[in-house]
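Annotated sample (chain length 219).
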Amino acid sequence: MDFGLLTKYWPMLLEGLGTTLSLCLIGWTGGLVFGVIIGGFAFTSRHIGNALNYCSFSLSSLPILIVMVWLHYPAQSLLGIVIDPFYTAAICITVYNALAVASLTEQTLREFPTRYIAVASNLGIPHSMQFTKIVFPILLRQLLPAILPQQVQVIHVTMFASLISVDELFRMGQRIIVREYDPVTLYSFLAIFYLALSLPLLLTARITKHRFTRELKEV
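Output written by the structure step:
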């Protein structure tokens, strides 16, 4: 790797890195907040649950890249509006993540081991304490191993934003490659970056799943 090349173009890479991280933070925050809320309502309401299943099934059949490009070009042309491609990408990523998290949340709620609540009720533990001390920690440990890999997908799909002219890290790297024709250095740098960002989330998901499964077997 030519570290001098990375140093030379560090301002461009830093700008792209900031854009990529911004897309990730928006997609993570919006997806998790709205996803958990929608998943909770879907669990309590059959109609919302059916709507969630329909939307998730429909969008899962469409590549996020196609949706992102369609929202950026044909949709805006038909509506006669111009939206910054960054916001188009952020909204698209957030919606996809929210629907995935909502489906995972609903499934986790339906698979919750109710025997813990029954035991707590028999012991006379107040309902408020049951939620904070029993229900919520168990739900969190069940949900994390499924949600974290989904957040890794958010990191990866930010690269698609480059195709609608968002200056994220991958697009900046390609610009530098065109100028310097050194794909080894730039693609190696990008691989290390995405690995450093994704691997901790995947390892946390694996450790959490292993620990929770072991504790359930011991109960």
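Annotation: The first helix runs from residue 3 to 8.
Annotation: Residues 3-218 form a domain with the MetI-like fold fold (CATH 1.10.3720.10).
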